[in-house]
Specification:
Length: 393
């Protein structure tokens, strides 16, 4: 550890290695999804490592995230997919960012930005195939396609892709089959209407390893990039990239019957040693995990007891010999017996995505290692954008 009370150490070689595994599981090109600051790992260093591991695209959800990548010098193709009519599409087009569109109103805004900047917008049309979330409905698809074709003929935009998102790839092959059929039908309609998208993409992390029929031209890998196995109960050789570490900042011996933290939700049943660690729910420790969650301290998993506070929580060390400054591993790959993000997700009744993205910004990130190829892949001076599209077969 550095002089900080806590740190999140990100293994960039693990990121690159995970992307290599993803790329090895498909003949399609790979998009590394680096939204939410790279799932809490740091978007820019993760993006560089992912590109070095074989990704050729980067995916984000906002204009701010896309422009951060460009400001950092990353030149690989970027798709940004959550927008409103008020989005500064001109800035995205000027930065050579592809944008997703799911409604005619957004298409109008993109076209207006293209006219204002004199640039041809590259758009990916999104169809809702069963997620009932983002994407045009089946009833709205013909209108979106018709307007897209009109704007293409006018030369203000190019429909580069058609895409959708899977709802049950980690749990139900039947849902995947139905969504794939709906996606194929939507693509056929778009092509019959005169569109010729070069990139079709549907697969998420789980589908990369379990549903090759969904791969099409591009797969979008999110949680798998960070080393979390995307299908419960199955392992694909991924390595968790983030380790959250802290240290003991107070030790006290207490008798049986001692109430711990707010509302005394835990009362000690025996004399025990309490170790205080300086991480709380503002740092990503879920508030309601007392009595279930554990950390690695002194070579043993020990429980967190009492209500987790904003900045700190209490570990029941029992009779373990604990001292001020002793290292604590909150989560990591599990190599030394420490809990993983998947363990924390189970304790908090959530998913690993929420655990990783919930690690607060006051926990500094320290990045170690490099990718396995050129660590500057996709940055200024690397291959031009046109070389980063569909994987050659």
């Amino acid at each position: 550890m550095t002089g900080e009370l806590a740190e999140a150490v990100v293994d960039l070689a693990a990121i690159a290695g995970n992307v290599e595994r993803i790329a090895g599981a498909t003949s399609a090109a790979v998009m590394a999804v680096v939204k939410a600051d790279g799932f809490g790992h740091g978007a820019v260093p993760v993006a560089r490592a992912a590109l070095s591991g074989g990704a050729t695209w980067l995916g984000v959800t906002s204009a701010t995230e896309a422009l951060e990548l460009r400001t950092a010098g990353l030149t690989a193709p970027v798709l940004s997919w959550l927008h409103s009519p008020a989005t500064d599409f001109a800035a995205l087009l000027a930065a050579d960012v592809d944008v997703s569109v799911a409604a005619p109103e957004l298409l109008d805004a993109v076209a207006a930005a293209a006219r204002a900047t004199g640039r041809t917008a590259r758009v990916h049309l999104k169809i809702d195939t069963g997620m009932s979330r983002h994407g045009a409905t089946a009833d709205g698809w013909p209108e979106l396609v018709a307007w897209s074709r009109k704007y293409e003929r006018e030369g203000v935009l190019c429909v580069r892709g058609v895409w959708s998102h899977l709802a049950t790839a980690d749990s139900s092959p039947y849902g995947v089959t139905a969504q794939t059929a709906a996606f194929t039908e939507a693509v056929a309609y778009a092509r019959d209407a005169g569109l010729d998208p070069e990139l079709l993409h549907l697969a998420n992390s789980a589908a990369v390893f379990t549903a090759p029929r969904t791969h099409f031209d591009l797969v979008r890998a999110g949680i798998a990039v960070y080393g979390v196995e995307p299908v419960p109960g199955r392992a694909f050789g991924l390595r968790p990239a983030l380790t959250l570490r802290t240290q003991v900042i107070m030790v006290k011996r207490v008798p049986a019957g001692t109430g711990v933290s707010y509302q005394h939700t835990h009362v000690t049943s025996r004399p025990t040693t309490l170790a205080l660690i300086p991480l709380g729910f503002a740092d990503g420790i879920p508030r309601g995990v007392d009595g279930r969650a554990q950390v690695l301290l002194g070579g043993r998993r020990l429980p967190i007891i009492g209500r987790v506070a904003m900045d700190q929580c209490v570990v029941d060390a029992g009779d373990t010999d604990v001292h001020l400054g002793d290292p604590v591993t909150v989560l990591g790959p599990g190599d030394d017996g420490e809990p993983t993000a998947a363990d924390w997700a189970a304790w908090a009744a959530t998913n690993p995505h929420e655990i990783l993205t919930g690690i607060g910004t006051r926990v500094p990130r320290r990045h170690e290692g490099k990718g396995t190829v050129a660590s500057d892949a996709g940055v200024q001076g690397a291959l031009p954008l046109q070389h980063h599209g569909r994987k050659r077969r």
